[in-house]
Amino acid sequence: MLQPVEVKPLPGYRIWIEYDDGQCGEVDLSHLAGEGVFKAWDEPGCFEKVRITPHRSIAWNDEIELCADALYMELTGKPVEEVLPGMKRIAHRADA
Hints:
This protein is an alpha+beta fold. It has two helices and six strands; from the N terminus they run E-E-E-E-E-E-H-H. It is globular, with a radius of gyration of 15 Å.
């Protein structure tokens, strides 16, 4: 299981994140800003409070928490099957 080891806030609702396998880089979260619970990021100093929780997620407060695995896939471009062996992609059909 991948473990985030460091996270830092960057301007423009981006974070720099590093994982225990050495993968690191920036993830742009600006598409979330201003929507739903992410409106809290507009409050001065809120986005800068990003942290790694004891259960591996990336969080800002009790309401804003993102999956470390999903962020890893965003960062690396790796598919779910590679990041989470044993998981299968589920195809969704609009007509189902």
